[in-house]
Protein 1
Amino acid sequence: MPGRVSARASRTSTTGQAQPARKSSTQTLKSTRSSADNRASSSPVADVPDEGAVTSLRKHISAIFADSQKSTTGHRKLVINLRKIQEACCYEPTSSKGQQDTSFDEEDFSNELIRCVLRLLPVRKSEPSGDRVVRFLGVFLRVASDKDNALLSDRDADEGDTTTLPETPTSRLSTCLFSALLPFFTTKDKIVRFRATQIASHMINILDTLDDQLYHVLRLALLKRIHDKEASVRMHAIYGLTRLAADVDASDGENSDSDDDDDSAAGVLEKLLILLQNDPSAEVRRSLLLNLPLVPKTLPYLLERARDQDAATRRALFARLLPALGDFRHLSLTHREKLLRWGLRDRDEAVRKATAKLFRERWIEDCAKLPGAGGEEEDGNKGEKEAATPSLDALLELLERIDVTNSAANGVALEAMSEFWAGRPDYVSFVTFDEGFWAELTPESVFVVRTFNEYCRGGEGRDAREQGRLMEVLEGKMPEVTRFGFLLEREIKTLIETVKRAASGGPDGDGDEEAEEESVAREFVVEQMLAMANTFDYSDEVGRRKMFGLLRDAIAMPELPEEATKLVAEVLRLVCGDDNQGKGEREYCGVILEAIAEVHDTIMGDDEKEKSEDGDESFHSARSEVSAGSSRGRKKAQQDADGDMSMDDPMDEEKAIREIMVNMKCLHIAQCMLQNVQCDLEANVHLVTMLNNLVVPAVRSQEAPIRERGLICLGLCCLLGKNLAQENLTLFLHCFAKGHPELQSIALQIITDILTTHPSLLTPVPADPDNTTTSLIPEPSPLLKPVLKAFSKALKSESPEVQSTGATALSKLMLSQLITDTDILKQLIITFFDPETAANAQLRQALAYFLPVYCHSRYENAARVVQVSTGVIYRLGALREAFVEDEDAEPGEMVTTGFVGGLLVDWTDPRKIVSGREQGFMLGREGGEEESRVSTHLLMAEQLLERMVSGQTSKEERKVLFSMLGKLHLAEKGQAVENVKAVLELVAEVTEGKLAGDATSRNVLTKLQTVLLKLVHDAAGAERGVEESGLDVTSVMPTPARRTKGRKSDETEMDEVTQQLQRELEATKIEEEDEGEESKLTVIGEGKEDESVIDVSIDTSQLPDEKDMQSLMDSLEDEDEEL
């Protein structure tokens, strides 16, 4: 700790050591008793069988501690009173006046104070009085230590000795307190351990110095407590250890020779960092986060807590630690970007608000500080928080510090600036975009305009008045569309110039790095301006014409980067407009095709232009170029093989490269166009021309990049035409079967989009009614089998990207009921739990969301999962056995089959499945059909029992199956008697086969049998009540209930399973009714409000009552025990 002395005199002071310092006013140090007998008798403070007579000193100290637990408001006065008692016991008055009252010495004072502290140990954590006493003790030790040091500093100043720190009464009192508390660190009582650790840690953080020997003892004792099973004990042990580690770390520079101290502190710090990462208690991790020293070694571990699973810990990082860290510019760029992304996208709203507040209030203020004001002012006036006046330069620097050029792509900077404008209305009013601002646009300045424009136009959560005010502010600050068109034209020209300069190469021919950096910045500026243009209103014809001409010329520029080309295509589609006849789309497609032709001519050069002018002057397609390029490529390859190299080979190679470039550029423009149109493919002549002359040749190309991009364009064309999709679906399946992993992912995405857009492609083929030789049942679609085969292959792929893409695509198709195959569903569930997919986080995350939603959204989906549940358990059991035998496998990579069974039971819980009526409301109808359906858990019980009866199951598998049976919810009313009886028959077979080998399994069967019998009884009673109600309801009169004549009830015949089940089921039959008895039957499951609707008098006295049911249950248990 600061000022800790490495070598110090013994704790017991004698009259011959260290002459006491005298204060000139009244006090001198009293000699303390140091005899061995007295010290030995007072050492076992923890066990005090006899406290002796009550003295006045005890009364005074006890009264002070008693008052301290009531409230913290009087602690200051109580500290003064206790300090006076300490001075009276530890210091000698200079005059003989008052000596008759000083009959107690320092040891008596220490014993009485320790006695009061020990009374605090059994106080529970929930009692606030205990915390008040601990706080009072800390305040007293700090005040007493300061006063003792002040007395000794005067004496040392007089003697000229400032190298050592002699002992004081308070330091000796602290040593006695620590010695008394240490034995209680290992007691069995968790409350005593908690209070002892709390008091010791609080004292460590209060005191400035500690004895060397005591320091090491405390460090070892607290290190043991960080592994205590109680989180509260660990938390307070950490509170003390963080101070020890911080103080030694702070003294590293001053005491570089103390290697032992450095090693011990480093060991403590490493253990605390491990605890920060792995402790299961959120409170312990939060305590470490807020108390660990802020040094370069601990900073990365502290910032990791932004991904902590506890929301309060994450909020503490953004709301408390990062503001206290100081200037954010000391953090690395990676840390700034990660903190913003993690905080602004956190699932907890409080964390998002804390991050937004940190960004718009603290980080902007750090940038708004005056230059040179961060050194002494940061240390001296750290607590001052004066908001700086709004400054555009500070805002631009803030965006530069978070690298807006790169962070804007994934949306972090956009979200940060959205929160900034929402929380800083002063900046909304302050910023102005005058001519000087637009004259020199930088990535940061244009991003300010773009985010300001989006904030003012976005009306979420605002009333009409506020939205109107912001639109007025925006119109006053932004230029009109025509003026904006000229600004955009200037920036596009600048971008093209920098791209050409960067491509031309530097002095050494390896490229101009400055020009490349400048081209990246200019490209970002153009992209942000195009994003703004995509939000404008083009009702002004002058501005619309200006933007139309500009964008038409821009999209035909070969040097325009792809991202900018995509944005130009989107804005051009908005500028073209649309009407009911599709005139806007036709105009848009015509402009794009003209741009493709112009790009082709520009890249290929004058030679190709002359060749094309000799032929027809229609659309300059890439089809002939691809064919010519392919033939020339083959000829060139043949010449190379023969060794016959001609002089114009370099020219041919350059021409082949240009052909690839022109096809890639043309296909990208076509892809951007197809992503922005929705018309019918066959009705648009421009799209048909583009498909035949550009897309189809690209798909047949031998160059892999051209073929992949052509495949994407063909897929987009298939979305616009069902016939084209049906013809080319087999092509995409072939590309998936034969292609590389990247092409497989593209093919899977295209297949999924086609099936989602045209679901009728998988519709079963209706049977021909005229053909009598075939069945009238519709046959499955011929495309279904190859599609299922492709997805099955994707789930087995070795590529994680193909696996995750296949699982995501399959999830979409199954949720939309396009694929209902149970085999592929079974494979999907097994893939989710397969240990080989443990490293594929994208796959696991997609399926973790899909499987519960799939089961709970429809009854049919849950029934399919029930159908495959036993197969899943069997297959995963085999995988589990192989996994356990594998020595290289990590234990946490595969869950147990019992856990899988619990998930299957939860997914198929009938209480969580959306009903038919709820589905109707979700689909916009007034209500859906609520049809009677068998409970999914009743179906699962049947599946599990059939598996045990019919299959060869292992002991472990039966254990899992019985565990699943015990978790089923079968208390649903309205189940058909036939289904329940079928399950009862299976229960009897399992019981006769003695498949329940342990008591737990037998108990599960007994409970299951009891529940099923209750369902049979309820169903039979409800069915009988409905039948008799139908017979008697016609003769019901508003007179008192009439006595029914003797009538024999109809008995239903049931198949005999065993004699036991026969006796149990016969108890549910209704026998002849007695003539003179009368009762009323309420149909089971009806509410009380339904009873008042109609009052039907039915004699049901022969139905078993509660006593009969209880005797029936008892007989079942007795007979099960006999079996």
Note: DSSP finds 49 helices and two strands in the chain.
Protein 2
Amino acid sequence: MIKIFTKRNVPKRVLLLLLCLYLGLSAYAQTPSVKGVIKDAKETIVGATVIAQNVQTGVKTTTSSDKNGVFSFPRLVAGPYRFTINFIGYETKTVTGQVKDGGTFSLSIELRESNTLLDKEVVVTGTGINRNRNTFTGSTATFSGDDLKMVGNNNIIQSLRTLDPSFLLIENNLAGSNPNVLPVIEVRGKSSVPSASLRDQFGGDPNQPLFILDGFESTLQTIVDLDINRVGSVTILKDAASTALYGARASNGVVVIETIRPKSGELQFTYSNDFRVESPDLSGYNMMNATEKLEFERLSGRYSAADGNPTQQVYLDQLYNSHLAKIKRGVDSYWLSEPIQTGYSNNSSVFVQGGDNTFTYGVGMNYKTQTGAMKGSGRDSYSGSINLTYRKNKLNVNNITYIRGYSAYNSPYGSFSDYVNANPYFEKNYTDRYLEISRQSNGVEIKVRNPLYDATLPQYDNTKNLEVQNNLNINYDLTPDLRLNGAVQITKGNKKGKIFRAPESSDFEDVTLLRKGTYQDSSSNNLSYQANLLLTYYKAIAQKHVLNANFRATINEKQDDSFITLSEGFPQGSNGNPRFAYGYAENGAPKAASSIYRTLNGTLSANYAYDNRFLADASYRLDGSTAFGRNKQFSPYYSVGLGWNIHNEELFKGKSWINRLKLFGNIGVTGNQNYGNVTSVSVYNYNSNSNYNQFGQGIDLSTLGNPDLAPQKTRQISGGLDFMLFNTRFTGYINAYTKKTDPLVVAVDLPSSTGVFSYPLNAGTLTYKGVEVKLNYSPIYNTAKRVVLMLGLTGSMFKSKYAGFGNTLNSLNKQQELSKSILRFTDGYSAETIWAAKSLGIDPATGREVFLTPSGQYSFDYNAANILPVGNTTPTVEGVFTTNLMFKGFTFGVNVRYKLGGDVFNKVLFDKVENISFSNITLNQDKRALYDRWQSPGDVAQFKSISQTATTPISSRFVQKENIITGEAINIGYTFDNKTWVKKLGMRSFAVNALANDIFTASTIRQERGIDYPFARTVSFSFRASF
């Protein structure tokens, strides 16, 4: 039986449902979709990011490739699309296509590995004269912002010391981790004789590299305070071929920093936060406890009357019993914990960017607050920038405006050494000016200061700085091969400092009432401009010849002035208001200084490559500067380099095991003028003493300039081998160099009859020879699956030698001897040689030191004429072991510094084991002063008799060989790029990272680290979110 449905038999709701289903299926069938697969030369790639942007509407859709390398966009609005594919370790690729209704758009994309892993094919010199790394014959090292943040998030200086073997951070054992003290940096050794008399107050460290920020010269302070999250790349220029473009300012190397440029596209917002915790490192201190200290004093004769006076002896016995009673009562004060704290640092950074192909903009801000390892010390820094770029046809205009500043404040607790030296059998208190007033064994009164008392007084030492800077850069393409570039920078800065010492301070105990308390107010201003014009010609001919030629002219002027007033005498309870000062400092008056420093130079440079195999570079620069003598204000500098890309020879082309093998060498001359104007200009002062000249106003010659002073010139010869082998698994370089500075600029004393005590002249040479090695090997290397294990090693070895001084620096060496310095300026010896008397040790019979004379004789008597070279602070080799692991989004890295073979003059042994005077016996000392000193005939000991308080001369007994290992940087992190929860929160990406810096130090010698301010171990956390 057949049943026939009529219209009435079918419910209306069923018909409606069928109609909707039909329409939906029709619409779905007409919606276009995109599918594709991503692979490299070997296999498919998992986790690659794919961005589909509708060209008409600008709407973006993001996805990623799955475990099979497949990605899809199932429903897209029809129209023209731009597809961008990126993955770490590969070059970013962009493809375009028309997506039509009802169709499926298929893509098969092959990514090419970046031979430099992180797109470092261009050497940025900071002058606008950039070079292709493949055809450049200079020695350089380039690191991305991500490289820097993998080993530290404090500042780029701390990170560079881990990443490059030539970039040496000289440890400052006095300042420790003080955030307000600038680091001391050397690149491939020194090029000058260190001397404060060669610099005016506006000059810099003569051995410090030149810093270039976004194409213009910058200061070390600006670089230290620079927000590390804004750094795009850092390039270190090391040899003549790479630094000759900077002529007279380049012999110490050049560090070029480029900040991140804004990108076009829809509005992007990025927030970064870095949080650091630092804990004072006191592991190097080996101080006595209360019982040990009292016993040391007893054995040293502290409680024995020097002249046998019975009355004095009774007093000393009572004093000893008083101290002993405190110890029996349980007093054993650990003073080192009083001035220190756990320091915290927080850096917040925001960057907003966007625009189109014609106009892009970027606005950035950051604020960093830091409390130091000592109470009351810290530093707050801030910066803001506006970056605008206009591109239209042949014209490109970029303008960056910076505002930056900082507030620095030093600890009111004074020097950390005051607490290290405090006696443990005294009880801590904040109310007493002196912990004890007593008499020594010779009857002389001694007052033991209480360091905590001064810490409670209303004292301060603060500095504030504000700087505004504008950089304008204009490019215009005259022809396809010829470009004209002009750039101008203007900088205005102001710095103010205030230091107040309260009248109640124990520093003024022996000062008259009207001179108690001091207040110093200082201010300095600077105004500078730099302008340059660059003409660049680039031409590729017949696919064989490539020529890049440049001409650059630069002019620079810097104006500095300073004003300092020092007032003294304040009423009790004063807070430092100078209005209440009794007057200027005794025999003092306000101090003012000004300086105008100018340079003018022109540079010609060219780079040529034949068939990308044979390479040549040449540069010539003529430099004029007011730092030179008036009669020698212009000086030429040059470099010539040759290179050979062995991997481009027919024999090696197409070989997968050789990706790069470049041999290069260069020679050139660069200079150094960091010492300012003081060497070339004579300075006169008005004579303020009216009784000096009865015939009227007089003037004094305070500084005698040398109009014939020639600039320092450093001839550099450098060569090396760069390689990348086995499909980039094994990479690195080996470089060798020689640096000879001839002539040096030194300051010598003239006869006292001249009235001039320091005169600059040219004398002597300083030569450095060294080798640098960097090796990276990846036993596991699968970039497609994002699994990479990399093992790395860097090493640096060098030696130096003075020559050509003769007797010129005898007066300077005499000053070194009187100041108990271990350094000398002597022909044939190193700048790092340690000079001291040769010691054979302590005589077991007498406890006295035995010296060896140059003639081979034994003597108990010290003679300054017998000082000899006894060591060298240069390590045999120094570098870093590195292990880095990347697994998907997870990263882990360990960087351990090693330093082998250098000699160290152990100042703790010299000052706190021996050389302990009658007055210093009341201070705490190193435990070795009790346990390791000679006490009775027959003792075999390293140190002299414990009862002797006579001065000990500098001898080889205090020079020790040091091998050291430091946990410089350990990091662990994870990047959430394609997680669903990240997208739901509206973020493009989210990354977290944890770091530990200087977490441990193991050394073969024991010495105090951080005399005035302790060193610190740091742990930090970072996160970065992009919207």
Note: The domain at 12-110 is CATH 2.60.40.10 (Immunoglobulin-like).
Protein 3
Amino acid sequence: MNKFFYFLLCTIFLINIYWVNGKLHKKVPGSLRFLNGRPYEGFRGHRLRIPEDIKKKLDSQYNEENMEFYYSQKLDHFNYDLRRWNQRYFYNGDLYKDGGPQFLNIGGEGPISIYDVVYPESPFVTWGSELGAMLFSIEHRFYGKSRPFSSQTVPALTYLTSKQALADIADFIREMNIKYKIKNPKWVVFGGSYSGALSLWFRQQYPDLCVGAVGSSAPVQPVVDFYKYLNVCQNSLFNNGSYTCGEEIKKGIKKLIEYSYDDTKRPYLSLLFQLQPPLETTTLNYKTLQNLYSSIIGNFMGSVQYSRVNAGPYKTGLSIPDVCGIMEDMTKDPLDKLAIVNKYIFENTYDRPYTGMDYSYLEEVNFLQDVEYDDNDLSASASRSWIWQTCNEFGYFQAGSAGNHSIWGTSIPNNLNIDLCTDVFGSQFNIDYIKNAISNSLSFYGGSAGYNATNVVMPNGDIDPWHALGTYNQTDTMIPYLIHNTAHCADMEPPSENDAPGLTYVRILILQNIKNWIGLTFNSNKSIKNFEKKNNIENKNNINDKKEISKINEIPVKFNSKLIKNTNKEDIMKKNIGMVHGLKSPKVNKDDIITSSSDITIGFIEQKLDHFNVTDIRTLQQKYFVNRKFNQNKSIAFVMIGGEGKAGEKWVTLESLPMIELAKFVGADIYQLEHRFYGDSHAPNNDLSTDNYQYLTSKQALADLAVFIKTMNNRYNYVNPQWITFGGSYSGALSAWFRELYPDLTVGAMASSGPVLAKTDFFEYLQVVQKSISTYSQSCADNIALGFELMQKMIMMQDGRDFLNKLFNFTYPWNINSTVEDYDVQSFFSNVYGNFQGAVQYSLDNTGEYVNGYGIKDVCEIMNNQTNDPLVNIVNVVNYMNTMYYDSSTPVPMSNTYKETVDFYKTASYDNGGSDAKSWLWQTCNEFGYFQSSDLGYNIFESSCNVNIYINICIDVFGPQFTRNTIDQNIIRTNNFYGGNKNYYGSNVVMAYGSVDPWHALGSYVYDKSRNLISYLIDGTAHCADLYPPRDSDLPDLKYKRELIRANLMSFLKLE
């Protein structure tokens, strides 16, 4: 009994040791050790791991109580609010000399320390000592002991913003000037990582309060998908470690994912990583595994980010050479080496034995939902504060969406980060909120490209993944420096004999600039050239309308009304994995009037292969159609621009089309010009190689149209011709863009459902799909969600895969001996949700089979069948949608491998009917993106398909040059060239979009009466609905908007 009481007393004593403010020290989830590029202790927490002998000396020399102060700070600087709170700061005046400057260390997302102002080896203190500076360090609101509220509820956190933090600094500086009677203040602000961005932004926003700023490793570019982080990690491991290291990591991650899908091998993973709890006793779901992958990959993220930074444990370990030394041991299995790295990182970071890894997403959420401060662990509350800032201002979400067949695979989708915001802070913090918040931050601060200030030095290390969000704009007083072979904030740490030459130089450079800012003699560094240059944006003046007329070849008409009957078949196989697009041909009814063949001309016009190279004499033949039945010698002409498919004669012969009805009324000729490389307008020599595809661009297509119009003007002797262009979907964008580039050749344009904004990750597509289905039937959307959730659980277990094999009739069944690849899983899911995409995009459009079915109503009837499970209903939807494409009475096999998709594109040709699909893929990879991923946080299709898969398809089909970065840069050029959806600059243009259509998310809604720029969102309609023949069943808003569009188009014409 005595032993029991002794044990009880000891237990109570130990509990009391760890009890602070009525709570126990919290257990930290493994995933928070290194989450989204931030160590648990903060971006620069390691700076406080000062050698014990130096720390003891400093502790004996300085009394913290004499240097720690609190300033009564405003709660809200931008509204009338009298509330105040105490903001902590440290001040060291021992080094000050009369007339010296004031140095301010800006606190970031963690607590400040007395060592920030007294540690003599840090450059901040060293420079302060040399220049006789006052040294201050101010703690960021909501971090450390600077707490505006007693807890971190969401209402309280609304006061945690970078703008409020900058205003804190401004008020603090003003108060210190008064307190210390500083008559000629010369404040220099310093910061690293997030606080580095604050430092640069402070100089930008409050240039009157400081003479200069140093912002080290400053991520000034807020971004939702910070895929470049893991991309830089990969490059740094290859370049600063070794090829073997990178490849072994890749093999290990691949094996990790494969084992996690294998019932027989999961126990080995549990044993190897000492997982708590073991995987085999856990209810598996995607987030559980994604969190596990993220935790393991985090080991390498940290070793790269801080590689040999001269502070804490990174001085001699935990860096690229150390983890690569483990991974290069070829006597061990790659997966086993991941576990060794995991154990090594833990033990050398926390100075205690490794006891296992918890990987629960739910535990992570619960930890971050705790609103209470923990005085025993200031990093705990800091984690919640920082996650709030990323969700509310910056993003910085480090997803594995770089493509490039990354060594990290597709294991960390952006959904994981977006959902964390939602789960921690509430349902309103979804992708729309985050996207808008980041857009606001970019608009306010300017981002990396728009950053502009004077007297700033902006060092970054090229090993550091955060350098990808830095700014490299340069003037004589705005100095960037990319330090070769250095990592995160290395310039802020004490010098070392092992420092790279560039690191030594940049410290000298910073000191020289500070001397200049405070008025000491200094020669300007105009010769600094070591910085990253901005991409050159093409000048729109390169495009002009000086296109000559060309040869035409008219051929006998080979069709009649019987030959343009409707067809139930698609021209292209359904292999576009989640890339639904295109303007479909209109429906022909038995009573419709079809223009006779005697009024139709079909011809081919000879076009230059390259309109922008005067020395290139190669040509191609481009098909066109002409209908002059309604000609009244008014020189009025309408042209339907061909898009990413074969030009159909219905667009010039079906007289119930709104375009043709208007042509009848005004006496216009009607044309259709097929797009180069599509349909019968073949690439030269039928060559669909990457080299030849360089001539398939929207700019070349628009130049084709310019030549065509000039040629037709000459051919038919038009006098003062009045052309109006028409287009739908991609060709709708072309119609709008033509008015920008060649305004003298037309009087107006009709652009239906034209996605004028190019975008790599077009996750908004599935957002609209979900919204459109939910609006029609919430139970339908809920059942889809239940079905996809069940599929994702089943695909992780062999018995579940066996069941899916039978349901979907996979082309390559996942049998017990099959290896489950993440790309294959994503291919399968994207093929499944592609059926819902098509049903929504063309719902109730007057085209093909969609006239009477295959829309939202029809798939929801299937999904709401309560006699079946939701999963069975999804299978029935797939089989139903397949009846549009196939005659077979038996279910069509479901493609479930990535290789099938790649092989389809690689073997596509004009002979086998795959050329148009491949050509459109090229245009998306080369100009537009439009990749329809599920990277939007919580949605009814779950984490089905990362944008990664589309990038890899581009690489595998067209070549390794199509990296994510290349595609992103191409899209930036496209948007800069045409203006995107916010800066479109055409005139006399009508744009129309359907509210149900997912493509309306990339439309332009700028209404400018002064230049006759008009945009309509048609309630309840889908893709290009306004272009199709009217029906009695058309929705009221469609009928109304068609009349408005007709009136707008007529206003562009000068009619006698």
Note: The two ends are 112 Å apart (CA to CA).
